[in-house]
Amino acid sequence: MRSDFAIRLVTHFYWDKKESFALDRDIYSYWTILAVEEGRFTYRIEDQEGEAGFGSLVVCPPNTWFHRKTLEPLTFHFIHFTWNTEPSLEEQRSLTGNLMIADIERLCSDYRYLRLIALEQDKAAIERKQHLVSDMWRLYELERNVPKEIGLTVVIADEEMRKAAHFITANIFGPVDMKSLALSLQLTPVQLTRRFRAAYGMTPSEYMTRLRLDRASKLLLETEFSIDKIAQLCGYENGFYLSRIFRNKRGMPPSQYRSLPRV
């Protein structure tokens, strides 16, 4: 598939915990993306059909029936767009259906900002939405094209592991009970750890620590908050505990990291 496609946003709407679609099928004059944040639904687009959940970008071409049915309350972004260069009929097929994104941390960030400006439709908001939607699409392209060019294989997380990563990301700065998370997915903690590592290259705990330390690093450089305050904002009990983990994972104490030159 070509990697030079660029999305031109037409409209964006956000729905939170929608119990069912108003119509079981609809047809649109623009290309459409239904990007799932939470929940699941089934879809059929021409001869392609399946089930989609978190991490899915379900893409439907214009003037094509989009069949859909919720399986559980659905939180999603509904996007109409055009291309800078219209794809050929063969390329259209590769761009249609359930396109999966593995980097859920980046995807969650795009979703979070889209939610914040979901109700805004002025020119500035549309430009910001354009940036975020383009980022989502470029992320998909990178995962599909760059690894092939450098001889790497991307492992796509299954639905359960995407749910696990989404749960950790959504609750990252509060208490995260891994045993309860495993139980909610009908897995043992050992199974959760093994499958999560296979999907994301790290254990759930390592994933959680990386996200927390990323935020701590940002706060160290961009604020004058005390170490105890930063620890609190990043889900740690106190500054001493944060300092110990930070030194172990980042190779220096927070105080030294804060003194690094800022560009």
Automatic annotation (TrEMBL):
Q: What sections of the protein cross the membrane? A: none
Q: What InterPro entries does the annotation carry?
A: Homeodomain-like_sf, HTH-like, HTH_AraC, HTH_AraC-typ_CS
**Record's protein name:** HTH araC/xylS-type domain-containing protein
The UniProt entry, under Gene3D superfamilies, shows:
Homeodomain-like (1.10.10.60)
Keyword DNA-binding included in the entry's annotation: yes
Question: Which superkingdom is the protein from?
Answer: Bacteria
Which keywords label this protein? DNA-binding, Transcription, Transcription regulation
Give GO MF terms, alphabetically: DNA-binding transcription factor activity; sequence-specific DNA binding
Which residues are in the HTH araC/xylS-type domain?
162-260
Which organism does this record belong to? Paenibacillus odorifer
